[in-house]
Design a protein that fits this description.
Strand content: 15-25%
Low-confidence stretches: 13-49, 174-197
Structural class: alpha+beta
Number of strands: 9
Helix content: 10-25%
Distance between the termini: 80 Å
Mean pLDDT: 75
Number of helices: 3
Length: 197
């Protein structure tokens, strides 16, 4: 009984087990959507690129607004301060932050010089645009949908963001917006450079 069990196992089996385990782990990771390019559902993190986060634009009925790289609308919250996010807890479930995953780039009418990041209270880098922390709305289920426009959930208004970095307060009726904030802008694209309140 001088030989251990491992000494009795043939060499090809000893080499095959770690390789098989590694392949299985890689397959499981891709099956559950762990790539950075998967579209955010309710805990959104992606900007539509597997190598980074892209902020682009879409022309809506209320004006051109910012989107992520897959065309999903992004919003600002007037309760946030300059380069600061105060959306935490239950707020994050309804309004997932747009997170940076590598190289942050602009496309379409978005300006690269307006892009930045801040550190989230729980860690990670949230994308900002002209100092506004950016968020998705969990109720938007498709590209260019703007059903969060004008919402006043969690104590302040949520607005689409213009390429100039200002809030868009007009309803975006062409893309399925609920129009819940249409009265705040008088029906026009009333973007203001002091959009913090």
């Amino acid at each position: 009984m001088g030989k251990s069990f491992l000494a009795l196992v043939p060499a090809p089996v000893k080499l095959g087990v770690p390789v098989a385990a590694g392949l299985l782990a890689a397959a499981c990771g891709s099956a559950y959507g762990t790539s950075a390019g998967s579209a955010p559902a309710s805990g959104g993190t992606s900007g539509g690129s597997s190598t980074g986060t892209v902020i682009g634009t879409h022309a809506g009925s209320g004006g051109t607004f910012l989107t992520d790289g897959s065309g999903r609308a992004v919003y600002l919250w007037v309760k946030d301060g300059m380069n600061k996010s105060t959306c935490t807890g239950a707020c994050v479930s309804a309004w997932p932050p747009v997170m940076d995953h590598g190289k942050l780039t602009a496309s379409g009418g978005a300006k690269a010089s307006n892009l930045g990041t801040i550190v989230r209270p729980g860690g990670g880098k949230q994308v900002t645009y002209d100092g506004h922390a950016l968020y998705y709305f969990a109720g938007d289920s498709s590209a260019a949908q703007t059903s969060g426009q004008g919402s006043d959930s969690f104590g302040a208004k949520w607005w689409l963001v213009a390429p100039a970095g200002t809030q868009i307060t007009a309803a975006d009726t062409a893309t399925g917006s609920s129009g819940s904030g249409s009265s705040a802008g008088g029906g026009t694209n009333s973007s203001s450079s002091s959009s913090w309140g």
